[in-house]
Amino acid sequence: MLTTFVAKTDSSCVIDGKVYPDLPLLMTNDGILEVQSDYLRELTVMRGLSPASVNEMSKYLRTHVHIMDAGGLSWEQTNEVALRRWRNEQAGENPSNARRGYLNQQLAVIYHFLIWAEKKGRIQGVVGPLSPADQSTFLVPVEIARWHSDGTPAHFKLPLLYRTVGESDRRNATAGQVDELFVALANEQNPYLAERNSLIGRFAENTLMRRHEIAALLASQLPSLGAAKAACSSGEELTISLHITKGMKARETIVDPQLVIDTWTFIEANRAEMLQRRSLPDRSDLPIFLSWRTGGKIHADALTNLFSSKQKQAGVKRASLHNLRSKGATDRVESLIDMYEQTGAPLPDEETLLLQAQELLGHASIATTRTYIRREKKRRADRKRAEHKELTDRSERLRQLDREIAIRQAELARLAKESEVRTRVRD
User: Same domain, yes or no, for 316 and 363?
Assistant: First the structure.
């Protein structure tokens, strides 16, 4: 059996003048697996993924090599049958959503590595098609769900991935779980980290900003402290202009004035003290939320890992940074529909409501917005059905009680009459 292991570079690894320690390399006893190691290097150097994420991917690529070796094949001979057999063995019968998700994560890394290797010409005829005109047969077929205008794939459908199933209301944490998460976020002896972590969570929930948008947010993008205080008094809405967004499309998002005030307080106190302690200048290009360890920009992957750790610490689920953003989006859609119901105005047609919600949520794709609208409508329909059932059950219980009272009254009347007859007989 082939022996593989993950090695890491040291400080002597320099690429384009930059030192890359801890860059993972996939090795065997015979030497380095060059294609996998080149892929991991590109993820780190060219795509900017964090070392922790790339290290995790290296473990999945190592698993991939073992899967094929167990069948007496090299990784270049990857086929769908071997991957499916491995997936089914690992899943067992009736795998949980968590198990399905973990296997999907590993398979997705393997698929994307193979697609990269095929594009780079490191393998041929293994995975595809990668162009609309290609009608060849591949060992690992994939379906292209959407193409770019230049004929390159924009989105893949990976056939071996499980569909995870669950209740729609399980997508988000409850209010109580969110409260427990924020307690864990603030549970830091370091006041800078306690305040920074809490503010990051509040930005995700309140402004619906994505993790990379929060990581790149500058003080110059915030409304002024004076404008925020005035908005608190007047009830006026404030917005933040975002430039480093999904698809690099500029957009604006609504922000709570109190969150702006608290962020300026953080900038002028704990953040300023942290920079002063490290003798670092407060440059205008420095993001608001900085790494305590380096004093520099915090990576978006580090935010994901932070909230994953805090979820475990709080003992809650579905309260990741993405879940907070999703909960905030759900709350906004709920408020939009509430506005119509409270005023007695009828809901607009589907497309009008979608456009209003899309603008409110800042979604580039209306398909994403439609998911939130349908989820909220389903939740309200379920609630109405539950309320109707409760009223029906209550009415049925009252009717049953009325029947029991009538029966008992008739019984009492009968007993009273029998007693009266017995009295007359004795007399």
Answer: no
Q: How far is CA 312 from CA 166, 236, 303, 318, 320, in A?
A: 21, 37, 14, 11, 10
Q: Where are the beta strands (DSSP E) in 81-151?
A: 127-128, 140-141, 143-147
Quickly count: other Cβ atoms within 10 Å of residue 312's Cβ.
Answer: 11
402: in domain: no
* CATH number, domain with residue 187: 1.10.443.10
Residue 134: both structure tokens together: 């290609």
Compute the distance between CA of residue 326 and CA of residue 329 in angstroms, rounded to an integer. Answer: 5
Q: Are 6 and 36 in contact (CB under 8 A)?
A: no
pLDDT at 394: 81
Same domain, 120 and 219: no
Q: What is the DSSP code (8-state) at residue 131?
A: S
Query: Which range of residues forms the domain containing residue 377?
Result: 350-397
From the list 71, 155, 148, the residue with the least C-alpha distance to 115 is: 155
CA dist 116 and 112 (Å) reads 6
Q: What are phi and psi of 68, to 5 degrees?
A: -70, -35
Report the share of the chain in percent with pLDDT over 90: 28
Residue 141 phi, psi dihedral angles, 5° rounding: -75, 145
Measured at the alpha carbon of residue 172, what is the angle toward residues 209 and 100, in degrees to the nearest 5?
105
In DSSP terms, 128 is beta-bridged to 141
> How many separate domains does the chain show?
3
Mean pLDDT of all residues in 380-384: 71
Is residue 101 one of the residues assigned to a domain? yes
User: How much is the pTM?
Assistant: 0.54
Question: Does residue 148 lie in a domain region?
Answer: yes
Tokens 């008992």 found at: 408
List, in order, residues 6 or more apart from 107 with CB less than 8 Å away.
83, 87, 158, 160, 161
Q: Is residue 406 part of a domain?
A: no
| pLDDT band per the 50, 70, 90 thresholds, residue 114 | very high
Average pLDDT over residues 21-40: 91
109 near 36, Cβ under 8 Å? no
Separation of alpha carbons 270 and 91, rounded Å? 47
